[in-house]
Amino acid sequence: RIADNAGARPAGTPVVAGGPAAHFSRLPVKALVQRLQAAGLPAELSLSAGSFVCNQVMYGLLHALRRRPGVPAGFIHLPPLPEQAAAHPGSRPLALAEQVRGLQVVVDALAAGLDELAAADGRTD
């Protein structure tokens, strides 16, 4: 629907020809959402990186690391900045300082070896 920076609009084309249909995040996503929310930051779990450049980035990263299973990798979507809000109607913008704080929470949790929660169906409780 939306062209990428090169003007391409791939539809139904695999990210990597012959690659698996999907790669799953290696991040403890439920535990990270819980940590971010406990820090007072807005966070929610998504079961998809989307169908645009976000998907390309996540799939490409995880495919490139397929032979290195111990490397934590995934995709974290950040909301628009307040100054970008007009271009993203209906979004919930977040100030840059809060985005940086959220990423620091994530990095610190991963560095400490945060384990995933055992909650089912994407719940974080």
Features:
single chain, 125 residues, mainly alpha, 0% strand, globular
Mean pLDDT across residues: 89
Total helices: the number is 3
Order of helices and strands: HHH
Class by helix and strand content? mainly alpha
Distance between the termini: 36 Å
Shape: globular
Oligomer: single chain
Radius of gyration: 16 Å
Low-pLDDT stretches are: none
Number of strands: 0
Largest sheet: none
The portion of residues assigned to helices is 25-40%
What percent of residues are in strands?
Answer: under 5%
Give a verbal description of the structure.
- With about 120 residues, the protein is mainly α.
- It is built from 3 helices and no strands.
- The protein is globular and about 40 Å long.
List the helices and strands and how they pair.
Elements lengths: L28 H10 L14 H12 L31 H16 L14
